[in-house]
Structure formats: C-alpha cells, structure tokens
Design a protein that fits this description.
The structure holds two protein chains of two kinds. Chain A is an alpha/beta fold. Chain A is about 45% helix and about 10% strand. In chain A, strands 2-1-3-12-4 form a five-stranded mixed β-sheet. Chain A has a four-stranded mixed β-sheet with strand order 7-10-6-11, with helices on both faces. Chain A has a two-stranded parallel ribbon with strand order 5-15. A two-stranded antiparallel ribbon of chain B has the order 1-2. Classes of the chains: A alpha/beta, B mainly alpha. Chain A: It comes from Paenibacillus sonchi.
Chain lengths: ~550, ~325
C-alpha cells in the first residue's frame, strides 16, 4: 500500500512536469500547426489567376490596424462587389494593442492577403513591391497616383509597398469642415458681439476680454501642454507669421530653421503673458491633462483657444450631443501685420498609410486589379456616396444631394454597417476633391449638401457671415511645397539631431508656461534664460538634418 | 494497524531523521535527493520558469555595452564599452532624476510604512467587527484602481476650480486663495507621497494586521493583570510582535528604492514641475525607448539593479548585526 502511494505520487509529479513542458513548448507547436492549416487553406483557395478567370469566387483576408465595425453579412456594397468581381472579404479589425498584434504577426510570418500600411511591417518585409504590378495591370491606379508617384515610394529602397489612402486630390478641394489649426471662438460669443471677424491677436483677445467682462464665470483663453499634444502651445508663431505647419521649423526659400527662439515666438508668448496678467488665460491650462482639457471644452465654458480642430473635436461632439450648438467653435486665421495667410494646407499624402499586399497573398494580380477597378469614378461614387436613387439623388443640373431621410439614414450606425463599408474603405485608394462631373468626392464635402445638412442655428451663423462652410473662414490652400510637411522628415534614432529636437521640446514644455505665468515685469528675463538654454543645444545638427531632408525630397519627389 | 506497529514506524522515521544531522542536512546527497524526489519533481517547473524568464534575459544586458541597433545581428553590433554609462552619469538630467527618484522613494517608504503600521494598530483596537471591516474595505479599495484613474482623482481633487482639497482648506480659513498644487515643483513630492498613502495604506495594513493576529493573546492578558493600559500594551506587546514582519518588509522595500514609480509621476507631472517629477523610469522611456536608444535604457536598468542588490545586502547585514530577522 505504501509503495503504490509513493508510485502514484511520482507519477503525479511526472505528470506535472510533462504538463509544464507542454505548456512552455505550446507557443511554438501551436504556431506551426496554425501555419500548417493556413497553408493548406491557401493552397485550396488559390485561384488560377494565370488562367485569366477574373470573376471566380475568392475570399481575401484583410487586416486593418485600427478598430472598426464589421459590415453585416448581407452588406449592400459588399454584395455589389461580389456580383461584379467575385471577390469577398474576411475583414479583421484591430482589437487590443497594435504593437503586440504586429509583433505576433511578424514573429509568425502569418500575414493576411491584404495588410494596412505600417512602418514596422515594411521593415519586416511583409509587403510585396507594387510598382511593377501597377504598371502592368492597373492603369487607373497609375493615373491616380501619377503626381505623387515618387513620394509614395519607400524612402529606404524606393519600392512602393503601400497605396496611400488619403491625400491624393483631383479637381477642386471642397472641404466644408475645417480640421486644421486656428484661433477658435464660440459661436455664441460671436453672435453676441455682432459677428466680428478678428484678424490680429489684439482684436481676438479684445473680443475675449469684452465677453468675459460680461460673463465672468467663463474661461477666457485655453491652452494645452500635455504629453505629445504640445503643439497648441508650440505652433501658433509659425501660423501667425504666415508659414504652413512644418512642425518645429519654418521654411523660407527651402531653408529650414527653428522658430522657438525667434521674435515671432517672443511676440506671441509676451501677448499670452499680458492676457494672463489680465486674468484672461485659464490658470490651470498648463497643469491639466488632455481629458481635463476636453472636459472643459465640453462644459461650454471656454471662450476661445488655439488648437487644431481634430484635437478638441471630441469635446465639441459632446457639446453637439448636449444640443449646445452655441458653444461650438469657429476658427479664425490670425496674422501678424504684413504676414500672408497659410493656415489651411492641402494635407500631404499619407505615405505608408493605406493598404499593401502581403507576401503571403494568394493572388496579388487579382487584388491590384480589384483596386484598379475601385478607383474608377463610377465605383468611387458608389463607395463614397452610395447607390443612386437609394442613398443620394441627382438634381436637374447633375449635382448630387440627399433627401432629409437619406441624411438621417447615413448618420445611423446600424444603417452604415448594412449599406457602407466605411471601415475598409478608409484604407483603400480613394479620390478626394471632385469628380470630373464637378460633384464632390463624398456627401460630407459637397458644399450645398453640407450646408443643407446643417442645423438651423449653424445655418444662421454662416448666413450672418455670408459664408457657406466653416473652411471659408480660411483662405483656399496654396499648392504644397514639394517637401511639405517638414515635420515628417525622419530623424535617425539616437542621432544628435533627434537628441536636440527632444531637448528643445523639453525646454519648451518647461519654459513656455513659466514665461506665460511670470509677472509681466519678469517676462523678459525668463525669456532670455529660455533662449540661452536653447542656444546651448546642438540646434545646428537638427536644422542640418531638416535641410538635408528637404533637399532630398526636392530632388527625389519632383515628378519631371 | 496496531498501536505497536505505528509506534515502530514513528520510531523508524525518527531514527532516520536523526541520521541527517544538521551539517549533512543542507548538503545535497543522492540519498536525500532520492527520498525527496517528489519535492524535486515539483520544483522543476518553478526552477525552469525562473531560469527562462529571470536568468536568460540577463543576456540582454550586453546591449548596454553596445550601440545597439535593432534588426542587426548580434555579431555586427558596435561595441562601445562603458560609453552609455558615461553618458548617463555626465548628463545633468540624470543626476536630477536620480535625486527625484530617491527622494520620492524615501518619502513613499517612510510614509507608507508609518501609516500602514499606524492604521493596523488602530484597527486592532477596534472591537466593533462591522466598523473594523468597513474601515478596512474602504481603505484598501483604492489599491485596485488603475493608476490612470487614481491620477485623475488626485488632479481633480487638487484643482483650483472646486477641487476638494482647496475647498476644505478655504473653509477652514487655512488659505485665502485656492492653490495650484500641481504647478509648483516644491509641492510635487508631497503630493506623490500623499497620493501613495491614500492608494496603498489599506493594502499595506493587511500584512501588519495579519502579523498582529498571530501574537499570543495570553501576553495581553498577562499584561492586563500587571496593570498595562491600552497604549502600554500597544507599545510593549503589539509593536515588538510585528517587528520581524516590519524588518523583512523594510529589507524588501529597500531593494526597490530606485523604483519610485512611473505612472503617477508621468500622469501628474507637467512642464512646470518637470524638475521634481521626472524619475529614472520616465527618463529611460524618454531618452531610451522613445528615441530608440535601447542601450542607454539597458544601462540605466543595470545601474538600478546593481544599486538595489547592494542596498538589499547592506540592509540585510545591518539587520543581522542588530540581531533581527533577516531575509537572506
């Protein structure tokens, strides 16, 4: 009896050991079996592209690097695509942490057919080069990307791995909602002050001062200096002096220099120092985090701020859902005397953001042909506007519009998942601007349609300003400089340029709030201290790298 | 089994045990291995786990002596000797973050221990079960909050716009105008210390309470008979009773003196307080990981480990000299 007990104990221990070994080994064994089945599936599914059968049913797996909603199985657009091309999709949206997901994918080499763009995946050689495929099979895509052909090539080896989804325009840019930088004021404030149009900092802060005098519990001027969202504090000088958003540098005649230590900066922060002394600046502006900033905007108490619209839009959305339209904002392009406005820009091509074809893809030719078909105007209209007569109407002079019922539909998530493929379309090559018949690319950018879809209060405000859209408060964007934007020039990891940039950023985060909150008498000495510290950094390394990058882009990106 | 047989077996075991005298007891002999093979088998997975996850990664320390670049094979990495360490110790910012780290860690250690023991002593005196449990639950609930939420609560309650701290201080007429607590570096360490106490005091108390319950009740009875009052009992029985626990925890915590924290400081810090809020961990993230300088991050990590190991040994030795319980 004794012996058996002992033996069974030994067996149990061995069992535990075996289990542990199995568990530790499980990762790899699982992996191999997975790839095994996958390969088998791929083999079974591969369609004979060479045979020229272009409508045979096939399913492509697609991974998108952001969260999104699965279209319903009977989705209208997917059905149209399947009927015409035989292609259906197995979509996977990101759940959880992207880096982790990519890490697992790369480690296992387990890629779907179509992959959204990512530098990490490019470095892991997960994509096949597309330029030859496009030349051979995709005349429409070639035409679409013609003007930016050199820009969308990967910087390191000159191949095209990802087809950018945004930033390739044709026709006219009609962009009624403005997402870029500006000095914002509440609509209600403007209404009460008799619809003024501030053009300078003085006029702008004058409006805030006058309004706050009457409504003392409002917050005057708001700012944000948190985490990576420090640009609301750092960027105004470049816009005020008539430069587009190139990040930490301004570029004149293709020569970049930092502006943090220049007079255009001092003027602006001195002004903020003044208004802080007058009690117009939010005292907590520099100690709050992003959520607190949004909460303040959503409370409707903030009269104005400098920011990019997309950065505070969540706060504004909350205002809209509360029905407080009078607390939402209009942006103004303030300028220093003599400066020429360049607030709005033409959004650079989103290089490496879009779709690429993975090295595991079963039929790259079929995929590229599919995208080529999708970029034709007819398909773009279907993808962006919907089906004619169902989702939009055409009036006598050929322009597209929607009935109130169609608008209400389009706002509903349940309708969207059954009638649109917005999630995947966000990553596909697309036409922006206008079609050859003059209609805007989608309902949101069609000027009349946009105006008609606005709430009566917004329409009233726009009428008072004699405008049709929010972006009309800004000048039409000039043609981008070829290198634009300079902030996307890559600084090598660990290089002196990168170190200088990072230290400069740290100095700004620390000293700008200090200078603004100092008593006006002390401002100049704090500023001097700040400038001295900037000059101790290796700024030259940073500027040199920027200029090198600009020259490289001018040389490589120009299409001759 | 008859009593006699049982008796024999016990005796047999006893004699067998006595054969393993103290000296052989610790050394490994095949015989002991054989008699304890179940134990050995059971510890194999644990040992494997430790080797795989705690010892194999030490290999990565080599990175600190290279100018490590990802995606380049090991043989092709550039060796730079102690350059990363030199950079670390010649950088002004690093000296500042080292100071901040030690200061905040020290504050946390002292405040955390004192409040935890204090609360445990007080709770121990409470006879009303329900009240005691309620206090305990309320005090350890914040432990389960994520740091992001905790930081949000802290910064909201310190706000000048209706934050509870300012409101209370104003109502008590201690201050005239609301104070911007988070905008001044000199307040920062105190805020972190207080926030940590709020978040962790209940959790820390549990261990001390457990230690207190293991004190022999007859000691208290004897003391009462000798005429000891409440505070005397606390002082002469409870406190010495938990001394061993306290010393062991102290030694363990001293090993973490360079881990002042990351999240709370990162989330509550801002441009105005950066000279006081940045810790080693934040420095590593900013100048190491974010800038792809993994070698520097590793060097900082090695520095932390070595300092921690040295401190633990010192603390352990001091405890030994003082005749206290030891960890090692």
């Amino acid at each position: 009896m004794h012996k058996t007990a002992k033996r069974s104990a030994a067996a149990a221990a061995a069992g535990v050991l075996a289990l542990t070994l199995a568990l530790t080994g499980c990762g790899s064994s699982n992996n191999t079996s997975n790839t095994g089945t996958k390969d088998a599936a791929t083999g079974g599914n591969a369609s004979p592209a060479a045979a020229g059968d272009d409508t045979a049913p096939v399913t492509f797996s697609v991974f998108m690097n952001g969260p999104g909603q699965q279209p319903t199985p009977d989705n209208k657009i997917l059905k149209l695509i399947k009927d015409e091309t035989g292609i259906s999709f197995n979509m996977e949206f990101l759940v959880g942490d992207l880096q982790q997901k990519l890490g697992v994918m790369i480690a296992g080499g387990d890629y779907p057919d179509i992959l959204s763009g990512d530098d990490k995946l490019i470095n892991a050689k997960a994509y096949i080069p597309l330029e030859d495929l496009i030349e051979k099979y995709a005349p429409n895509l070639k035409k679409h990307y013609g003007a930016v052909w050199n820009q969308i090539k990967d910087e390191s080896d000159g191949h095209i791995y990802v087809l950018p989804s945004y930033g390739v325009y044709q026709g006219k840019i009609t962009e009624p909602t403005y997402q870029g930088p500006g000095f914002w004021l509440q609509k209600g404030v403007l209404e009460e002050m008799g619809y003024p149009t501030p053009k300078t900092l003085d006029e702008y802060f004058d409006i805030i001062a006058k309004y706050k005098e009457k409504h003392p519990d409002m917050i005057g001027f708001e700012s944000l200096n948190f985490d990576w969202r420090v640009f609301p504090l750092q960027n105004p000088p470049e816009h005020l002096s008539g430069h587009p958003n190139d990040g930490a540098v301004i570029v004149d005649n293709n020569v970049a220099q930092i502006f943090a230590d220049k007079d255009i900066s001092k003027t602006y922060y001195k002004k903020l120092n003044e208004i802080n002394a007058q009690g117009l600046m939010d005292k907590e502006a520099f100690v709050q985090n992003y959520d607190q900033y949004l909460a303040k905007i959503a409370s409707g108490k903030v009269i104005g701020m400098f920011d990019q619209h997309w950065n505070f839009q969540d706060g504004e959305k909350s205002l809209i859902s509360q029905g407080k339209l009078e607390n939402t904002y209009i942006g103004f392009p303030l300028l220093y005397p003599g400066a020429e406005e360049w607030y709005r820009d033409r959004g650079a091509v989103g290089t490496n953001r879009g779709f690429g074809i993975s090295i595991n893809a079963k039929d790259p030719v079929r995929i590229i042909k599919f995208w080529d078909k999708m970029i034709t105007e007819d398909w773009q209209k279907t993808l962006q506007w919907g089906v004619k007569g169902e989702d939009y109407e055409v009036n006598a002079d050929g322009s597209f519009y929607r009935t109130p019922e169609q608008r209400a539909n389009a706002d509903q998530t349940s309708w969207q998942v059954a009638n649109k493929i917005s999630g995947m379309f966000g990553y596909m090559p697309k036409i922006q601007g206008t079609y050859s018949d003059g209609n805007a690319a989608d309902a949101g950018t069609q000027p009349q349609e946009f105006f008609d879809s606005l709430k009566p209060y917004d329409q009233k405000i726009l009428k008072a300003y004699n405008k049709k859209s929010w972006s009309e408060f800004f000048k039409e964007p000039k043609e981008n400089n070829i290198y634009f934007p300079a902030y996307s020039i890559v600084l090598k990891d660990g290089s002196p340029a990168q170190l200088a940039q990072s230290k400069l950023n740290d100095l700004q985060i620390k000293y700008l709030p200090k200078a603004i909150m100092a008593s006006p008498a002390e401002f100049d000495s704090v500023w001097q201290d700040y400038v001295d510290r900037i000059h101790k950094l290796d700024i030259k390394a940073y500027e040199d790298r920027m200029n090198e990058g600009i020259q490289q882009r001018i040389e490589k990106w120009s299409v001759k | 089994m008859s009593d006699a047989v049982l008796d024999k077996q016990v005796k047999k075991q006893k004699t067998r045990k006595s054969k393993i005298d103290p000296e052989i007891g610790v050394s490994l002999s095949w015989k002991t291995l054989k008699t304890q093979k179940q134990l050995i088998f059971m510890s194999v997975p644990i040992a494997l786990y430790l080797i795989i996850f705690n010892y194999v990664p030490i290999w990565g320390w080599l990175m600190a002596f290279q100018n490590y670049r990802p995606a380049v094979s090991f043989g092709q990495q550039e060796w730079v000797g102690l350059q990363q360490f030199k950079f670390l110790f010649s950088d002004d910012t690093f000296m500042l973050v080292l100071r901040n780290t030690i200061a905040m860690s020290f504050i946390n250690l002292v405040l955390g221990t004192v409040t935890a023991i204090g609360l445990a002593l007080l709770l121990n005196e409470i006879k009303l079960k329900f009240f005691k449990r309620a206090v305990q639950s309320i005090s350890y609930l914040p432990h389960f909050l994520s740091m992001v939420i905790a930081a949000g609560i802290v910064s909201t309650s310190l706000s000048i716009d209706g934050g509870i701290v300012n409101v209370v201080l104003m109502k008590l007429h201690l201050i005239k105008d609301p104070i911007m607590w988070l905008s001044e570096g000199k307040y920062f360490w105190g805020i972190i210390g207080a926030a940590n106490v709020w978040k962790e005091v209940g959790w820390g108390t549990i261990i001390y309470l457990a230690a207190i319950t293991s004190i022999d009740p007859s000691l208290y009875e004897a003391a009462s008979i000798d005429g000891a009052k409440r505070f005397q009992k606390m002082r002469y029985i409870t406190l010495p009773g938990i001394k061993a626990t306290f010393v062991i925890l102290l030694i363990m915590n001293i090993g973490h003196i360079l881990d002042a924290g990351f999240e709370l400081q990162y989330l509550l810090g801002n441009g105005l307080t950066v000279d006081y809020s940045q810790t080693i961990d934040i420095f590593v993230v900013k100048y190491g990981l974010a800038m792809g300088n993994y070698s520097l991050a590793t060097a900082a990590g090695i520095f932390k480990t070595i300092v921690s190991v040295i401190l633990v040994f010192i603390a352990n030795n001091v405890a030994k000299r003082l005749g206290e319980e030891r960890l090692l």
